[in-house]
């Protein structure tokens, strides 16, 4: 997916205004994730109605308050705002994990043409390789909420980050501060169970 934004800059939505501009940074942020391109404008009445739904949708899938592990999801805001100030003001009300194209970047228009976006709001859902899962998922998000992510995840054929090979698990366990205590407790309780299960001679 980083190839879609090759040579471009994505701005991280936080107060420091960090920028992802190297191939490595973009790759790390976008690889093995479902990508949402949100075409919208702060002044658009339909966007004003939809944006809070999208914010809640995104937060419920990526915030550890709601989920044990953040979903493999990334969102890039493609602004149709009239001024940079309006874009900035809008983004301040949105999650810090959102990315956006710089206001003056003409690539926004290229994306609109590429994905045939005529009206806003529009949410284009892409696989990690850039293939389109949904041309406009606005109605699906309204109707199903976070549940629709499961369908996208399957369609995108993401590599499940929760899957760990045995050696990976052992490596993680060795790094845990409580690992020695857990092992000791497990061995003691296992011995106790074995001893209880033995019949007297």
UniProtKB/TrEMBL annotation:
UniProt cross-references to InterPro entries, sorted A to Z: RdCVF, Thioredoxin-like_fold, Thioredoxin-like_sf, Thioredoxin_domain
BP GO annotations: photoreceptor cell maintenance
Domain Thioredoxin: from-to ranges: 1-143
GO (cellular component) term, any one: mitochondrion
Segment forming the signal sequence: none
Pfam families, A to Z: Thioredoxin_8 (PF13905)
Protein's name in the database: NXNL1 protein
Organism: Nothocercus nigrocapillus
């Amino acid at each position: 997916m980083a190839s879609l934004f090759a040579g471009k800059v994505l701005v991280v939505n936080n107060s420091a205004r960090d920028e992802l501009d190297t191939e490595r940074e973009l790759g790390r942020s976008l690889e093995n994730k479902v990508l949402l391109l949100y075409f919208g404008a702060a002044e658009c009445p339909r966007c004003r109605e939809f944006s809070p739904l999208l914010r809640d949708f995104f937060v419920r899938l990526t915030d550890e308050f709601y989920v044990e592990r953040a979903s493999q999801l990334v969102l890039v805001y493609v602004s149709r705002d009239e001024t940079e100030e309006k874009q900035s003001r809008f983004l301040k009300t949105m999650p810090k994990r959102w990315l956006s194209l710089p206001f003056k970047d003409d690539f926004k228009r290229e994306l609109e043409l590429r994905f045939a976006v005529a009206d806003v709001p529009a949410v284009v859902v892409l696989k990690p390789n850039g293939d389109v899962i949904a041309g406009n998922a606005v109605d699906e998000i309204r109707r199903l909420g976070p549940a629709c992510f499961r369908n996208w995840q399957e369609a995108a054929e993401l590599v499940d980050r929760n899957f760990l090979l045995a050696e990976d698990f052992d490596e993680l366990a060795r790094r845990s501060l409580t690992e020695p205590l857990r092992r000791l407790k497990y061995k003691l309780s296992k011995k106790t169970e074995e001893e209880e299960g033995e019949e007297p001679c």
